[in-house]
Design brief:
Blueprint: H1 2-32, E1 39-44, H2 50-59, H3 66-76, E2 85-90, H4 95-104, E3 109-113, H5 120-130, H6 135-143, H7 145-150, E4 166-170, H8 174-194, H9 205-218, H10 225-238, H11 245-255, H12 266-269, H13 293-300, E5 309-312, E6 318-321, H14 324-341, H15 347-355
Antiparallel strand pairs: 1-2, 3-4, 5-6
Helix pairs in contact: 2-3, 5-6, 8-13, 9-10, 9-13, 10-13, 14-15
């Protein structure tokens, strides 16, 4: 009888060991087998336990078996906690690769790039196209004085303070979080630009950003920015209107809900508007675009020059002059004669350049 009991016990032990070996082999096979195809999105709510997580991942076709994934996580990866967020899985992935992404919080990032010189309505379109935040909601918040106050912006809206750069953010950032990151990036750029400020320059932050935005819109040539800044500083010092087309264009946009046919007319130059720098002396009330680092530094550190005028050569560069006689000669050469030769309807623009 005793021998029989020992045999039964031995068989039970062997059976248990065999079952355990089978389960371990099955577990290892499951954990190392890739599954799924295409891109799949899963949003993990805060505090999701193994049961909830296994069901979500199975329904999204990220893992092949809800029960086996639960066992794998609960018994073989005990103590590992998935971080909340939105996750993207692309192509076949193993359960351990899935868990690794969830445990390390490798959430889906939305990437977008904002070039220098875009207005905030244009930036809203860029952010909206990324899928991170609806364009209309972004623009509404950017125009709200309460948002500007909350983010420490010295203006009534965020124009000029949404720094041009490439951003990668999770959906959890939302519209306000996205703006907070962009304004934070501006603040770092502003502090860097401050290091280059001329001691004699008295512009405050809003005035400097406003001037930088005009410089940004006037030229895409980095080497020209400090000289264009010099022209505007000279005009401000002498009480001469800045006479710059981009501010008039901004006035037209403001009055037409940012719809513009692309043509600047003589009537626009005569328009009574705070942003019309042909009619008003000094800087306009605020920025007309969002300047980059180089434009900020140029606004705070213009080169020394006697220039009061510049006009486009129509090749993305400008020619500069210290007096009206020189400038009028350049206007005839590079604007009036040029457009006559090319039979363009640019008379109003030539007239604008002659006044600048």
């Amino acid at each position: 009888m005793r021998r029989f009991v020992l045999w039964v016990f031995a068989l039970c032990v062997l059976g248990g060991l065999g079952w355990a070996a089978y389960r371990l082999r099955d577990e290892r096979q499951f954990a190392s087998t890739p599954f799924g195809e295409g891109a799949r999105l899963v949003v993990v709510p805060p505090g999701s336990g193994p049961h909830t997580l296994a069901r979500q991942l199975s329904e999204a076709r990220v893992v092949s078996d809800e029960r086996r994934f639960f066992v794998h996580m609960h018994y073989f990866r005990r103590g590992k906690q998935a971080k909340a967020g939105e996750y993207e899985f692309d192509g076949p992935v193993t359960p351990d690769e899935v868990l690794g992404k969830l445990i390390h919080g490798e959430v889906k990032l939305y990437r977008f790039t904002v070039p220098e010189g875009l207005r905030m309505d244009e930036i809203a379109g860029v952010v909206g196209a990324s899928g991170l935040c609806p364009s209309a909601e972004f623009l509404k918040l950017a125009r709200d004085p309460a948002t500007a106050k909350k983010l420490g912006v010295p203006a009534s809206n965020l124009e000029g303070f949404l720094f041009p750069d490439t951003y990668s953010l999770s959906r959890g950032a939302g519209c306000l979080g996205t703006m907070q990151v962009m304004v934070g990036r501006f603040q770092r750029a502003w502090q860097e630009a401050q290091k280059h400020r001329l001691p004699s320059l008295k512009l405050d932050e809003l005035q400097a950003v406003t001037l930088a935005s005009i410089i940004e819109k006037e030229t895409g040539q980095p080497e020209e920015r400090p000289r264009i800044s010099c022209v505007f500083h000279n005009r401000l010092r002498k009480g001469i209107p800045l006479g710059t087309d981009p501010t008039v264009i901004y006035a037209v946009l403001l009055e037409n809900d940012f719809v513009w046919d692309g043509n600047l007319h003589k009537s626009d130059l005569l328009r009574s508007h705070p942003y019309n720098t042909y009619r008003n002396k000094g800087l306009p009330p605020g920025p007309i675009a969002n300047p980059g680092q180089a434009a900020l530094e140029a606004a705070l550190h213009p080169i020394a020059c006697d220039d009061l005028f510049f006009v486009s050569r129509n090749d993305h560069t400008h020619v500069f002059c210290p007096n009206l006689k020189c400038h009028e000669a350049n206007v005839r050469k590079y604007q009036i004669d040029y457009f006559r030769r090319h039979k363009g309807s640019q008379g109003d623009r030539a007239a604008a350049s002659q006044r600048r």
